[in-house]
């Protein structure tokens, strides 16, 4: 059976670090925690799990800190997590099975990263990230912000998932790092250009975000998934600026990079829905339900293939007074989010409508 070093970077994580370590303490053979300047009781909490606590002066560069953390590992494989990550019980069992069965010819193992959950506790957004890597391969982290681990060799996609369960979030940290890089005259990589644009969008700097998304897309150096995301983010910028024409064009632009994604279909459906062009809206929402995403697609938002198009089709068929069909789509949406207030309101509404025999009038 392989041996595993857990390597983490932390700062002021007293509220969540214990929860994270409790979920993995019996799954790994060594815990290495690199503190980048905590002023709370993070170190005291960590000390209950390990004495391998290291200090790293924060230099506004996440990859540098993560690479330092990897240097502390002594076991065959390295697992990395963030302080607000957790392995839930089902995934703890999957991790145990993976550890027992993994052969040492595998260089890097990816796991799903569950980013958000709906009101029912179901995963509605996830990505894949390489989480477990051979130490002797000396894979390196790259990027001051939104860093990524550059891996190669024999790769394996596992069924283990890490759940992201944050309690708080530092909303200004990343954008400030990017601004410092730009002000220092450093040329942003295409990837950093994309993520800087995301930060600008999140902080309401829509015109500036558009500028950086265009720089990213016109460079033609981006990963196809980031290109598609950039198109959708551009559409968001134009939506905030009430620029309907460019919003529409940005959505269509995503078709340059791959077949239409369910998210694009839902966005187009909403565009036509807002104009009361109900037939066109219905077409695109139905396409969102027809298109199948690859099981291991790197980015997934399940709402665009489940409850969202059904709920919108419910509204659209209600507009057309096709109440039986509208109710059917509400029931299908209910199979994913049964306790949502909108779903429950619609149930009562259609019970009244259909009881009076008003369908297809």
UniProtKB/TrEMBL annotation:
<dbReference type="InterPro" id="IPR001173">
    <property type="entry name" value="Glyco_trans_2-like"/>
</dbReference>
<dbReference type="InterPro" id="IPR011990">
    <property type="entry name" value="TPR-like_helical_dom_sf"/>
</dbReference>
<dbReference type="Pfam" id="PF00535">
    <property type="entry name" value="Glycos_transf_2"/>
</dbReference>
<feature type="domain" description="Glycosyltransferase 2-like">
    <location>
        <begin position="5"/>
        <end position="97"/>
    </location>
</feature>
<protein>
    <submittedName>
        <fullName>Glycosyltransferase</fullName>
        <ecNumber>2.4.-.-</ecNumber>
    </submittedName>
</protein>
<dbReference type="Pfam" id="PF13181">
    <property type="entry name" value="TPR_8"/>
</dbReference>
<keyword id="KW-0808">Transferase</keyword>
<keyword id="KW-0328">Glycosyltransferase</keyword>
<dbReference type="GO" id="GO:0016757">
    <property type="term" value="F:glycosyltransferase activity"/>
</dbReference>
<dbReference type="InterPro" id="IPR019734">
    <property type="entry name" value="TPR_rpt"/>
</dbReference>
<dbReference type="InterPro" id="IPR029044">
    <property type="entry name" value="Nucleotide-diphossugar_trans"/>
</dbReference>
